[in-house]
Design brief:
This protein is an alpha/beta fold. It is built from 13 helices and nine strands. Helices cover 53% and strands 13% of the residues. One of its GO terms (molecular function) is oxidoreductase activity.
């Protein structure tokens, strides 16, 4: 029995390892990226390329989109040679949008797809580059349950857990909520290390205390080597995290810690936008 033909738009830090896992699972894969050159690693592994999003949708049964923000999503769907300009037959098509975007944009794009007879599923993921490489992401899905059920065997190749949370917009809200908690952990860890250093405690010792005690979690353990090495190459950049916090604020933040977190990351953008989100520590150190 032949496997579903897949397409993928957006070959960033997350897109490439996720595509590799789909290829490993035996799916025929065609990719498109606005910036050419990034696809070579995947074509060497057996992927094909498409000239545009429209041509990609014409040739594939299921198309994934993973781009940076709402504007990029709208361009992929509605721009010149965008997905919604594709001339498609009555053949069933599913578009799975794994981008982290506003619930409002999700609902708009979903309606546009449905009007054209294309099934749509939102499926943002929780996790960064290493979980993407290891296929241990948590996939958060929103949309009709029938579409989710059709897509789930493919989504299972990308993560250790695939959850259906409700209708359009629900998965986006859940993604923004979990990213708030990630941010509380990062800024809390930064402030803990900074306070300790200011009072004569070595960062390595303080991080050992954190990671061997009840406060340890995946974020503290993943970010400890970043802090100790001083290598802030982005697994998830300040720029992208600050964007997610703006989405959360626009969706409706009402709590004090979330507002403080939002404001701190927006302030850190000017100097640290291309560094890992844990560079919030560098920003706070500079302020002292």
């Amino acid at each position: 029995m032949s496997k579903t033909t897949l397409g993928w738009i957006g070959l960033g830090n997350m897109g490439i390892p996720m595509c590799r896992n789909l290829l490993k699972a035996g799916y025929p894969l065609t990719v498109y990226n606005r910036t050419t050159g990034k696809e070579k690693e995947l074509t060497d592994a057996g992927a094909q390329t498409a000239e545009s999003p429209a041509k990609l949708l014409q040739s594939c049964e299921v198309v994934f989109v993973m781009v940076s923000d709402d504007a990029a999503v709208k361009a992929v769907f509605n721009g010149e040679d965008g997905l919604l300009s594709a001339a498609i037959s009555n053949q069933s098509k599913i578009i799975i949008n794994t981008s982290t975007i506003s619930p409002e944009t999700t609902k708009q794009v979903a309606q546009q797809c449905n009007n054209k007879g294309i099934a749509y599923l939102e499926a943002p993921v929780s996790g960064s580059v290493k979980p993407a490489e290891d296929a241990t992401l948590i996939v958060l899905a929103g949309g009709p349950k029938t579409v989710f059920n059709s897509a789930k065997p493919i989504l299972d190749c990308l993560g250790k857990m695939v959850m259906h949370l409700g209708y359009y917009g629900s998965a986006g809200v859940a993604k923004l909520a979990i990213n708030l908690l990630v941010g509380f952990n990062m800024q809390g860890l930064a402030e803990t290390v900074l306070f300790a250093q200011q009072h004569g405690i070595d960062a390595k010792d303080m991080l050992t205390i954190v990671n061997e005690g009840g406060c340890a979690n995946g974020t503290t353990k993943a970010k400890t080597p970043v802090i100790l090495s001083g290598n802030y190459a982005p697994a998830f950049s300040v720029k992208n995290y600050a964007k997610d916090l703006r989405l959360a604020k626009n969706t409706g933040i009402t709590t004090p810690l979330a507002n403080t977190l939002h404001d701190t990351y927006q302030a850190a953008l000017d100097k640290y936008e291309e560094e890992d989100a844990m560079a919030i520590l560098k920003y706070l150190q500079e302020k002292e």
